[in-house]
Design a protein that fits this description.
There is one protein chain. By secondary structure, this protein is mainly alpha-helical. It has 2 domains: 36 residues; 40 residues. The chain contains 5 helices and 4 strands; from the N terminus they run ααββαββαα. The strands form 2 sheets. The chain has a two-stranded antiparallel ribbon. Strands 3-4 form a two-stranded antiparallel sheet. A hairpin with a 6-residue loop joins β1 and β2. α4 packs antiparallel against α5. The longest helix is centred in the middle third of the chain and has 12 residues. Bound molecules: zinc ion (2 copies). One zinc ion (ZN) binds next to α4.
């Protein structure tokens, strides 16, 4: 099984996928397939990086960083773009 998935694939919260391969978050019941995803998620609890991308869950310390990420990482997907726009309201 490959980990080289698209952002939309990684976003899929398929219950089977999440339960069969998951590292539990110490702060909430969520499970993550990889350590780096879990660590990135934990930062959303600690508040170190309060600006979280609604599309892929990646967090940023500055709103500018999130905005730049949103454009570079998700600009291609029209539907995703809409989500990003909404998240900035
Ligand atoms: Zn959590
Ligand atoms: Zn993102």
């Amino acid at each position: 099984m490959s980990y080289f998935l698209s952002y939309s694939d990684m976003l899929t919260e398929d219950p089977t996928f999440m339960s069969t391969m998951g590292k539990p978050c110490p702060y909430c019941p969520k499970l993550f397939p990889t350590n780096w995803k879990l660590n990135a998620h934990i930062l959303t609890h600690t508040g170190e990086k309060p600006f979280r991308c609604d599309t892929c869950g990646k967090s940023f310390q500055r709103k500018e960083g999130l905005k730049k990420h949103a454009i570079t990482a998700h600009l291609l997907d029209k539907k995703t773009k809409e989500t990003i726009r909404l998240s900035f309201i």
